[in-house]
Amino acid sequence: MEYLLFVAYLVLFAWLVTKVKFFTRTGLSNPQLIILFLLKIMAGIFYGWIGLYYGGLAQMSDTWGYHAGSIHEYNLLLHNPKEYFTNLFRDPYDGGITKFLTTTDSYWNDLKGNVFIKVLSVFNILSFGNYYVNVIFYSFVSLFGPVAIFRVMKDVFPGKKQILSLAAFLVPSFLYWASGIHKEGLIFTGISLIIYVIYFSTKEKKINATRIICLLIGLLLIISLRNFIIVVLVPALFAWLLAIRWPKKSLAIFGSLYLVFILLFFTARYINPRFDFPQAVVSKQQEFLKLVGHSTIPIRQLKPTALSFLINTPQAINLSTIRPYPSDVRHILSLAAAIEINVLLLMFVLFLFFRTSSINSKPLIYFCIFFSFSLLLAIGFSVNNLGAIVRYRSVIIPLLVIPMAAQIDWTRINNVLFKNIKNKNNI
Hints:
The protein is mainly alpha-helical. Helix content is 75%, strand content 0%.
């Protein structure tokens, strides 16, 4: 019966992918859309399998923990619907709702798991609590994220649909982490919806009810599932909007505003103690230091001072952008992550030497760069578990890889390689 249910939903949602206008307006064919959807489902199933059989080794047991919590919520819906519809809004702490960035006794810190479990409990109504059927639902919902980014980048880089589709959907770590039943897929969807709405609304100089709803959904997903991202996202959005108004001064706008934001980051606590952002990062790091895992590594501890952050910046950049090293490999996931990061570094080298200038929106590209590296720094400052770092950074990988891949002159690289091979053969 479970297999029949899985096949029935698989066929239904594969058909829906070809009918939803948001998907079909990508310019991708129906078979291409179905293949991308099926790849997400396969990645989600593999994610669940890894979590079930190698969860402890690969730090992947959370996905089944969320599933167990969703079953409990599903049963609560059946037997105590009043509690089901109200428990999400109850603060179990004394003033926990005021602790937006803190990690202990915080309503917001608990909310990220509670919201995700609630979403999965809704899936359970249709799947009867089957994890792998829920993968189909989750793959469909989380497909909106890469589709939104693809549509934006397709407009920015016209005529490069093939390379954009590869970069937007098939970067291995992104496909894996954003397809499995965990928060990353919805977080990326939230980020992507915000980018999509702002890009096309400012370009077309119009906004409608649908776009406003999408913008609100995006913000709600980020705030509820990983609230510290909003602190990184808002400055980037503000700079982006100003750069759209004065596109020729985009880099100067981003550079000057980020200097102001850095000053505010360290001084806002003197205006209001609740805005002690450095201490929030330090507290986050302390929470991770208490956790012990197979991919935990020793790091220099932060202090809530500008000097300490400056000293720890090289370590943060190394952790979030270059690790894991080959020497960090402990299992198949860390091996895949080590291979991927080296391939992406090679792509960056190609970008430096074979870059083209075919770009229609520099403000958007600067947004992707400043937002992505700000988030990478936030991750590097606070997280010392390589598995968690790879998962956390997966939500911004497409924002860096897509512009980079789209601006590489692949034809020139191909010609250079072909010429070298031809010369060797002649010798």
